[in-house]
Design goal:
The protein has 88 residues and is mainly alpha-helical. The protein has four helices and no strands.
Length: 88
């Protein structure tokens, strides 16, 4: 017998969990990380350096996406809601 995954865990609603100021910061730092990572990758040095440059680029992408969407999956998993976004 197969169990439908949505029956066990209903889909989560993705709500805004990042303040506007944090969103701007995430997008700015994310873009900077992506740009610096890509510039460094273009210089292609030792293998360890390339791995770290790729990780920097991926971290920048994560910050950019979470900032643009306003939703942080880690915040949701930890149950963190900023004070300014809490409803009374």
């Amino acid at each position: 017998m197969t169990i439908c995954p949505t029956a066990v865990h209903p889909p989560r609603r993705h709500s805004i969990s990042i303040t506007p100021a944090e969103r701007v910061g995430r997008v700015a730092v994310g873009l900077a990380g992506i740009i610096v990572g890509l510039v460094l990758i273009a210089g292609a040095g030792p293998a360890l350096a390339v791995v770290l440059e790729v990780l920097l680029t991926v971290a920048g992408l994560d910050l950019l996406v979470t900032g643009a969407l306003g939703h942080c999956p880690l915040y949701a998993e930890l149950g963190h809601v900023p004070k300014s976004l809490r409803t009374p």
